[in-house]
Write a structure and sequence with these properties.
Layout: H1 19-30, H2 43-55, H3 77-88, H4 95-122, H5 140-157, H6 161-164, H7 170-187, H8 192-208, H9 212-226, H10 234-257, H11 273-285, H12 289-299, H13 301-305, H14 311-329, H15 333-338, H16 341-349, H17 357-387, H18 391-400, H19 410-432, H20 443-456, H21 461-468, H22 471-481, E1 487-491, H23 495-503, E2 508-511, E3 521-525, E4 541-549, E5 552-562, H24 563-568
Parallel strand pairs: 1-2, 1-3
Antiparallel strand pairs: 3-5, 4-5
Helix pairs in contact: 1-20, 2-3, 2-23, 3-4, 4-5, 4-7, 4-16, 5-16, 5-20, 7-8, 7-9, 8-9, 8-10, 9-10, 9-14, 12-16, 14-16, 17-18, 17-20, 19-20
Length: 569
């Protein structure tokens, strides 16, 4: 016998969120961060460097190299996407912007796949709310739309999604492909053809993006749940389970053929510091979705423990558990946790029909205070940067970013003012009326997250570019070396530094070697100098500059000139 559902929802509670408002929120979240900024260190600029090398034909498509170094991740699909975007872009579009367009589309597809995946999960028989004795309960389709709206709002509200989802890296591709798999397994009972197509794209895309193990682990849930498709006979369930298994096996075989399987399990350091850092990451990265997800697990615990499988709970729970497991056992931890955010948002959405009015009010007030204070702080610091008043924030900016010269942009100001007025109007709407829809508790968190991200990417964009990009350091090196120095030898540079020297400084780089001739300049990381005598003859080079990144006092590059050249002149 099935345990009773904890969801009690009336017809008034499932009024849909206006489509124009949801679309506007998604645009306000997706577009900022992809427009108007320089590539940031270090994963963003590194990925862009490989894409540019491929697009310009300077390296092999199956074995890309950047400064003689292979990528840290084995997945080649993200680099192929970026390189093809550069090659196919019209001449008036910069390569940097050309790369970002398909990745912005991937983020939009992630939001869409999450919405539709939760929509189909909410249509499952076990997810339906309690049927009232005299009618008046929420219709199934309206209920599913309201839950899907809540899941999308919960995903946008997650603090950890903002930066990582706006970088042109393999992790955004993995996130998008994970959401495709999530949608495929959720939609299988309703649209088998669409589900199979999404499954193929998700499985092979996730594999080619460098995560074949996750493909297999996530695919296992699809195989198991396919055996228990609601309203399907046993034969049809087995057929779809076999089809799902074949797709996953084919993706695993492709990974084997391309040598993408790697053992990435790492241990944590002894003591409490590393575990404390991991705990902090788990707390803030998925906020505010994870408290709601825990509430879902508590209120729906009988359904989770029942013999009958409730796919609307088990599917997102499995995806979330795999992501958390990868976060604990692999590096980088935040990138692994990113892939579980769509499933975490789905779990959070199923808490909405069970929230009491007092808990909803607590969420509203906390969110209102948190994001209003955050937006006010962003505005105050921006005003201080432009005018010098208040003096203390201006002094703090000058101390943390020495050499930064504030820039004024009328467009950025108009965008920020519009977003802030919209936030005030939304707060007034939320506080002045007793709205019934179940998604109401996540409107302020999602809108507050979008507001903060938009303000940062408009008002603070010049400061963030100065602090997080290599542009200031590369300009300083250009001032020493000149604009066209010919070839430049390098010693001990990271992939990000190589990409920055090639893209921002415009240098033609060669790894340092005694056999290399004709290069008058050499750039070395300070930790790699002095270089081995088998690579560089230190007596032939004179240090002419030590260039530091203004916002990172540990990032030094040493610039050398060949002594022989000066002697001949």
């Amino acid at each position: 016998m099935n345990p009773p559902t904890p969801a009690i929802v009336t017809q008034n509670a499932v009024r849909p969120l206006p489509r124009w408002a949801l679309m506007l929120l998604c645009i306000a979240y997706v577009v900022p961060g992809f427009v108007g900024r320089a590539p940031w260190k270090s994963a963003d600029i590194t990925a862009y460097g490989y894409m540019l090398e491929l697009a310009q034909g300077r390296t092999d498509w199956l074995n890309p190299l950047l400064g003689g170094m292979a990528p840290e991740t084995e997945g080649l699909l993200p680099y192929w996407i970026g390189a093809l975007a550069i090659q196919w872009a019209p001449s008036w579009l910069s390569p940097e912007m050309a790369v970002r367009l398909p990745f912005a589309a991937l983020l939009a597809l992630t939001l869409m796949a999450t919405w539709y995946g939760v929509y189909y999960l909410a249509r499952s028989p076990g997810a339906q709310p309690v049927a009232f004795a005299f009618g008046g309960e929420a219709p199934p389709l309206d209920y599913a739309r309201a839950i899907a709206d809540g899941a999308l709002l919960a995903l946008i509200a997650c603090l950890g999604l903002a930066q990582l989802s706006h970088e042109v890296t393999s992790y955004l591709v993995q996130l998008s492909c994970t959401s495709f798999l999530f949608f495929a397994f959720a939609a299988l009972p309703y649209h088998a053809g669409k589900a199979l197509g999404a499954m193929l794209v998700g499985a092979f895309g996730l594999t080619l993006a460098g995560a074949p193990a996750l493909t297999v682990l996530l695919g296992a849930s699809g195989v198991l749940l396919a055996l228990r498709l609601p309203d399907k006979d046993e034969r049809q369930c087995k057929s779809w389970a076999v089809a799902t298994a074949l797709v996953i096996v084919a993706a695993a075989a492709l990974a084997w053929q391309l040598d993408l399987w790697r053992w990435r399990i790492v241990g944590t350091e002894e003591g409490g510091k590393e575990w404390a850092s991991l705990a902090r990451l788990l707390v803030w990265f998925g906020w505010p979705a994870w408290p709601l997800a825990l509430w879902t697990l508590w209120r729906w615990r009988k359904q989770i423990a029942s013999r009958q499988w409730h796919r609307h709970l088990l599917l997102p729970l499995w995806f979330t558990a795999i992501s958390i497991g990868a976060t604990i056992t692999t590096q980088p931890a935040d990138r692994a946790l990113l892939l579980g955010l769509p499933a975490l948002a789905a779990l959070a959405a199923f808490a909405l029909p069970t929230l009491s009015r007092s808990m909803g009010a607590l969420i509203d007030w906390f969110t209102l205070l948190f994001f209003s204070v955050s937006a006010l702080a962003i505005w105050v610091i921006w005003i201080a940067m432009q005018t010098g008043v208040p003096a203390k924030p201006a002094a703090n900016v000058a101390k943390l970013a020495p050499g930064f010269v504030p820039e004024f942009s009328l467009l950025a100001l108009v965008v920020a003012l519009t977003a802030s007025v919209g936030w005030c109007a939304l707060v007034w709407w939320r506080a002045s009326r007793n709205r019934a829809p179940i998604w109401k508790s996540l409107v302020l968190p999602a809108s507050g997250a979008a507001l903060s991200w938009l303000l940062l990417m408009s008002l603070w964009l010049p400061l963030l570019d100065f602090a997080r990009s290599y542009v200031p350091q590369m300009r300083a090196i250009n001032a020493v070396v000149g604009e066209n120095p010919g070839c430049v030898q390098t010693v001990g540079l990271s992939r990000a530094q190589v990409a920055a020297l090639q893209y921002h400084a415009g240098f033609t780089l060669r790894p340092a070697s005694l056999s290399v001739s004709g290069c008058e300049w050499l750039v070395s990381d300070i930790a790699s100098w002095p270089a081995p005598a088998s690579t560089v003859d230190g007596l032939q080079w004179e240090r002419v500059a030590t260039v530091v990144r203004p916002t990172d006092k540990t990032d030094f590059l040493l610039v050398f000139r060949r002594i022989e050249t000066e002697t001949k002149n």
